[in-house]
Design goal:
The complex is a heterodimer of chains A (about 250) and B (about 350). Chain A has helices at about 10-20, 55-65, 85-95, 110-125, 125-140, 155-160, 170-190, 235-250, and strands spanning about 1-5, 30-35, 45, 50, 75-80, 95-100, 110, 145, 190, 200, 205. Chain A has about 250 residues and is α/β, with parallel strands linked by helices. In chain B, helix 4 crosses helix 5, helix 4 packs parallel to helix 6 (about 205-220) and helix 6 (about 205-220) crosses helix 7. The N and C termini of chain B lie far apart (about 60 Å). Classes of the chains: A alpha/beta (about 250), B alpha/beta (about 350).
Chain lengths: ~250, ~350
C-alpha cells in the first residue's frame, strides 16, 4: 500500500519513526513530503497534481521524499500531519470562552452548539484542512489526519497561558478536541488519528520521554534544543504509525 | 401676483424633484442635520433592513460598535448564524419601538421582562432574541446567564455610542400580557407556544411609538448625553398581519405610522435625523425595481441606492457602494453578502403559516 505523508515540522517524528519500524510493515511504502511552517502553506494544484509554489518548499519536498516534489493521485492513502490541526486551537477558544456547563468567570459564554461550531470552524481554518481540500481536487484517496502532538508535560506554556489543569478542565479540553476533530472528519471525509493514551501524561500533554532528542525538519536534521517541548521524537512517531497504519489501510477507499 | 411656490427649489416640485430623476440618485433627497464621520462611533439596531445598513457602513470603514464580538475562530458565516456581527450587540432584530425601549431598560436595570423563555424539543430559547441561538440553550439557568452577559454588552453600546442608528420596522407585536414584555416575533413561530390567555396582539399607535422612542432617547442619553440618533424606516413590507386587515392595508398603516413618528421626532429634536431609505426604495420613481420578485425583499441595488444617498452627505469622497462591498468581500466579511435573502429575519418565518 502506497501511503503519502504530508506535513509540517511534526512530520520529522513520523519519518524518523518509520525508518526504525518499516521492516515490521513490509506491505507499506511511505513517501514523505514535509516542509516547516509556513513553507508548507505554499502548495497548489496544477495539472492534477499538488505542487509547491515556492522553491524552498520544493527543496524540502525533494529532501524528505527522496527526490520527488509533486504529489499525484497515485497513492492508496494519504496521511496529513500537524499543519496547525492542533489542540492549541481548542485551547485558544477555551481561554476566551466557556461552554454551557462551565461557571461564569469572565470568559465569553457560548451555547454548546456555538462552542462546537467555533472549534470545528477553527480547526477547519488550518493549513491541514486547506491541504486536504487540495487533495480532494485531485482525487478521492482516503485521508487520515494526525494532529499536531500535544505539548510535552514539561512545557510550562499549557498552564501559564491556559490554566486548564488549575481549573480541572484538561479532560474537558481533550474531549472538545476529539469531538471537533471527529465531527469535522465526518463532515469533510477524513479520519482523525489522535495519540493513544499510552503516549500521554495527561489528557492534553504528551509524556516527556516522547519529546527527548526530537529532530527538527531541517535539511541538516539538527536535533532540537533540550527545552523544545512541542516536537516529538522517532519513538513517538513509530508508536503513532504502528497504530495508524492498520487503521488507515482499513479506511474505505 | 406672487405665489409662495415661486422661489422654491426644484426639489420642492414632483416634476423636477422626482420625475426624470435617477431612482438610485435622487438629487437633494437627503440633507444631513448633523455630520457623521468615519470616526463616529455608531451603534445599529432595528428590523431586518438595518442589517444591510450596518453591513454597508462597515464596508465603508465607518466605526461600527461591536460590543459582543464572536468567539475567536468562528467563521463569518457561522458567526452570522449565531447572531454575531450583525448589530452592535447580539440582540437580533428589533422590530418595534417598545422592544427597543424595553431592551434599553433591561440593560439599565429598570425593567425585568417576563415570559421570555420559550421551549422547543427540550431546549430553551430567549424569546427576546430567538434567532441568535438556532438550537437554543440547555436550561433556563444558562439562558439567564447568557442574557445577563448580553445586557451588559447592550449597556456598553449605549454608553459608548455617539450615534444610534435605528431602523423602525413594525407597529404590530405580540405581548406577554401580564408583564407587557414585547416579543420580536409571535410565540410558536420559532419556539414556544401561543397561549391566548397570556399572549396578546397589539398594534402600536403613533402616540405610543412616539412616546416609546422619546423614552428611549431619554434613557440612552441619561448616561451618554452627547448621543444622537439616526432614524430610518424599513421598506420591507410585512410578511403577515394579525390586525384583521388585508396585509397590504396593514403594511401601509404600519409604514405610515412609523414614517410619521420618525418625521415628527426629527422635526422636534435637534439630536434626531431621519434618513429616507424608505422613500428611495418604495417611491413611484423606482417603479418597484428595488424589490425582488416576491415584492418584499429589497434587492442589493436598492440597498446600494440608499447607502449612496447616505454617503453623498456623510462620506462624499469614498468609493461607490459597489466598490466598497467588493473591497469588503476581498477580506472575510463579518456577515453574509448583500442579497436580502441573507438577512436574518424572524418575521419571514410567518410565511410558513400562510395558506
Amino acid at each position: 500500500m502506497k501511503v503519502c505523508v504530508i506535513g509540517d515540522s511534526h512530520l520529522a517524528a513520523m519519518k524518523l519513526g518509520w525508518e526504525d519500524m518499516q521492516a515490521a510493515f513490509p506491505d507499506f511504502t511511505l513517501t514523505f513530503f514535509g516542509a516547516p511552517f509556513p513553507l508548507i502553506e505554499r502548495l497548489a494544484v496544477r495539472n492534477g497534481t499538488i505542487v509547491p509554489t515556492q522553491w524552498k518548499t520544493e527543496v524540502f519536498f525533494r529532501h524528505t521524499s527522496g527526490g520527488e516534489a509533486r504529489i499525484d493521485g497515485s497513492y492508496d492513502r494519504v496521511l496529513l500531519c500537524g499543519m496547525k490541526f492542533s489542540i492549541w486551537r481548542v485551547l485558544g477558544v477555551y481561554k476566551h470562552c466557556r461552554a454551557e456547563d462551565e461557571k461564569s468567570d469572565g470568559r465569553l459564554p457560548l451555547s454548546d452548539p456555538c462552542y462546537r461550531r467555533t472549534l470545528e470552524d477553527h480547526l477547519a481554518d488550518t493549513t491541514c484542512i486547506a491541504t486536504f481540500k487540495l487533495l480532494r481536487e485531485i482525487g478521492a484517496t482516503p485521508v487520515g489526519i494526525v494532529p499536531t502532538p500535544f505539548p510535552s508535560e514539561e512545557s510550562d506554556m499549557l498552564e501559564r497561558r491556559y490554566q486548564a489543569r488549575a481549573r480541572g478542565d484538561e479532560a474537558r479540553v481533550a474531549q472538545h478536541f476529539a469531538d471537533a476533530a471527529e465531527t469535522l472528519g465526518r463532515r469533510l471525509g477524513f479520519a482523525p488519528y489522535l495519540a493513544p493514551a499510552s503516549l500521554l501524561a495527561s489528557p492534553i500533554a504528551t509524556k516527556a520521554a516522547c519529546a527527548k532528542d526530537s529532530v527538527g525538519l531541517r535539511l541538516d536534521s539538527v536535533p532540537h534544543a533540550q527545552d523544545e517541548h512541542n516536537h516529538m521524537n522517532a519513538a513517538y512517531g513509530a508508536a503513532m504509525l504502528r497504530g495508524i497504519l492498520p487503521a488507515l489501510a482499513a479506511q474505505e477507499a | 401676483m406672487r405665489s409662495p411656490y415661486e422661489d422654491l427649489p426644484p426639489t420642492a416640485f414632483w416634476r423636477t424633484g422626482v420625475v426624470g430623476q435617477a431612482p438610485d440618485a435622487i438629487k437633494g433627497l437627503y440633507a444631513k442635520k448633523f455630520a457623521i464621520s468615519r470616526k463616529t462611533r455608531i451603534a445599529t439596531a432595528g428590523s431586518c433592513f438595518a442589517q444591510h445598513l450596518a453591513r454597508h457602513l462597515r464596508a465603508r470603514d465607518f466605526t461600527l460598535i461591536d460590543a459582543e464580538p464572536p468567539p475567536p475562530g468562528l467563521s463569518a458565516e457561522s458567526a452570522a448564524a449565531f447572531g454575531y456581527g450583525i448589530y452592535s450587540a447580539r440582540y437580533g432584530n428589533i422590530y418595534t419601538a417598545r422592544q427597543l425601549l424595553q431592551l434599553a431598560q433591561s440593560a439599565r436595570g429598570t425593567f425585568t421582562p417576563s415570559g421570555i423563555v420559550w421551549e422547543k424539543d427540550g431546549r430553551c430559547y430567549d424569546a427576546l432574541r430567538p434567532s441568535v441561538e438556532p438550537e437554543g440553550l440547555s436550561s433556563r439557568a444558562v439562558l439567564a446567564d447568557h442574557r445577563a452577559w448580553h445586557l451588559k454588552r447592550v449597556a456598553e453600546v449605549l454608553d459608548k455610542a455617539e450615534l444610534f442608528v435605528f431602523t423602525m420596522g413594525l407597529t404590530e407585536a405580540w405581548v406577554h400580557a401580564p408583564s407587557g414584555t414585547v416579543y420580536p416575533t409571535a410565540p410558536g413561530t420559532i419556539a414556544g407556544r401561543y397561549d391566548p390567555d397570556i399572549h396578546r396582539f397589539h398594534n402600536f399607535t403613533f402616540p405610543e411609538i412616539h412616546g416609546d422612542m422619546t423614552a428611549f432617547f431619554a434613557l440612552a442619553k441619561a448616561q451618554n448625553p452627547k448621543l444622537r440618533f439616526l432614524l430610518t424606516v424599513s421598506p420591507v413590507p410585512m410578511t403577515a398581519t394579525a390586525s384583521g386587515q388585508h396585509v397590504l392595508q396593514a403594511t401601509t398603516y404600519t409604514k405610515s405610522v412609523l414614517r410619521a413618528v420618525a418625521g415628527q421626532l426629527a422635526q422636534e429634536r435637534d439630536d434626531v435625523d431621519y434618513f429616507p431609505s424608505y422613500e428611495i426604495v418604495t417611491s413611484a420613481l423606482a417603479r418597484g425595481r428595488f424589490y425582488e420578485d416576491n415584492l418584499r425583499n429589497v434587492r442589493p441595488d436598492g440597498v446600494e441606492a440608499a447607502i449612496a444617498a447616505f454617503a453623498a452627505e456623510h462620506d462624499p469622497d469614498a468609493a461607490s457602494p459597489v466598490q466598497a462591498m467588493q473591497q469588503e468581500s476581498a477580506a472575510p466579511p463579518p456577515a453574509p453578502e448583500s442579497a436580502e435573502d441573507d438577512a436574518i429575519c424572524e418575521e419571514i418565518l410567518l410565511d410558513a403559516f400562510a395558506p
